[in-house]
Design goal:
Largest sheet: 8 strands, mixed
Shape: globular
Number of helices: 9
Number of strands: 11
Helix content: 25-40%
Bound molecules: beta-D-glucopyranose, manganese (II) ion
């Protein structure tokens, strides 16, 4: 059968099919070659221009400013786009002492801007054991970083004093409980010691919804290995953490505790958010891969039934030592 232009109808259908096939092929190829460009997320990426609107100011700071002669700091400082140096990997004890002095860091690794009242009162909680060099690199990098963001912050290093499997989530619960004894932080950042943020626009502050901060990580080729990932570095409001009953205390060994935490958040009707991939960029300091725990899948499955009965409301631990070091508040804990 011929059309008016003389092309066989069956032939023209074939041409259309080929055309559609070629477009699909090119699209799939692009996705494989440049996955981050086509990155979509199950949880929304906040647009760069919306970051400021999404940040949640601390009500204490807003109250404080009424009794103070200092003004409120802006939610995001203006001069944030300066480029960052990669952390110095050969820091020494001496450099770190110098750092505390040079940067006017208060005992226990706390700081707030001298000229204005920060709208972000943030506890940065780091679960820790046996990573001395990484801790030194992290501290030397993160203090100047956080100060450029004009935060009121303190760094808590929560160290598992006991041998046996590491319990990251329980250490984070301890950090939460101990931080609140020191200051009514409205925002918590739970952060691995080996993660180095690459962009100053990645504000270490809380958004209205809990935020997965380290979504663009070099070791994952700057892609999400799966959509629900909520590990590495996350930011959550104090009231939201309380509402979800914190982390589970059951996850000994590597893996799963962050997945359980994200289920708790979703179960409570919240959603997660992320900053754009080019803002949420991190480098991981290299270390040997941890051996995943065999129990993690079972814990995850059974965890759902324990949201109400396993968490900060049932947290039991003993503080072995609590020291206000120049660059961090150290809590050595028996879990
Ligand atoms: C584990 C998580 C971990 C993630 C990325 C998952 O299989 O359950 O705990 O954060 O992998 O490494
Ligand atoms: Mn790591």
């Amino acid at each position: 059968m011929l059309t008016r232009t003389g092309i066989n109808v069956f032939q023209s259908k074939d041409v259309i099919k080929r055309f559609i096939f070629s477009i699909a092929f090119v699209f799939v190829l692009c996705c494989i070659l440049h996955p981050s460009r086509f990155a979509s997320s199950y949880y929304p990426y906040i647009k760069y221009s919306d970051i400021e609107n999404e940040l949640e100011p601390s009500p204490h700071a807003l109250a404080l400013v009424k009794e103070s002669d200092k003004p409120l700091c802006s939610l995001i400082p203006k001069e944030l786009e300066t480029s960052l140096q990669y952390p110095n990997e050969s820091v020494r004890e001496y450099d770190l002492k110098y750092l505390a002095h040079m940067h006017n860091i208060a005992e226990g690794g706390a700081w707030e801007p001298p000229q204005c009242i920060s709208q972000h009162q943030v506890a940065i909680v780091i679960p820790y054991r046996n990573r001395t060099l990484q801790l030194q690199i992290f501290l030397s990098y993160i203090h100047p970083f956080l100060q450029k963001q004009m935060l009121n912050y303190r760094i808590f290093i929560i160290e598992q004093g006991t041998k046996g499997a590491f319990n990251r989530a329980k250490l984070l619960n301890v950090g939460y409980a101990e931080a609140l004894k020191i200051f009514p932080y409205h925002c918590f950042i739970f952060h691995d010691v080996d993660l180095i943020p690459q962009k100053l626009s990645n504000m270490y502050a809380c958004t209205h919804q809990p935020r997965h901060m380290s979504s663009s990580l070099n070791t994952f080729r700057y892609n999400l290995p799966y959509e629900q990932l909520f590990g590495g570095a996350v930011a959550i409001l104090q009231k939201q953490f309380e509402l979800v009953n914190g982390f589970s205390n059951f996850f000994y060994g590597w893996g799963g505790e962050d997945d359980d935490f994200q289920s708790r958040i979703i179960n409570r009707g919240m959603t997660l958010c992320r900053f754009p991939p080019d803002v949420a960029r991190y480098t991981m300091l290299s270390h040997a891969k941890e051996l995943p725990s065999d129990n993690r899948f079972l814990n995850l499955r059974l965890g759902r039934e324990r949201f109400e009965t396993d968490g900060v409301n049932t947290l039991k631990y003993t503080v072995i030592k609590l020291v206000y070091y120049p660059l961090y508040t150290w809590v050595l804990v028996d879990l």
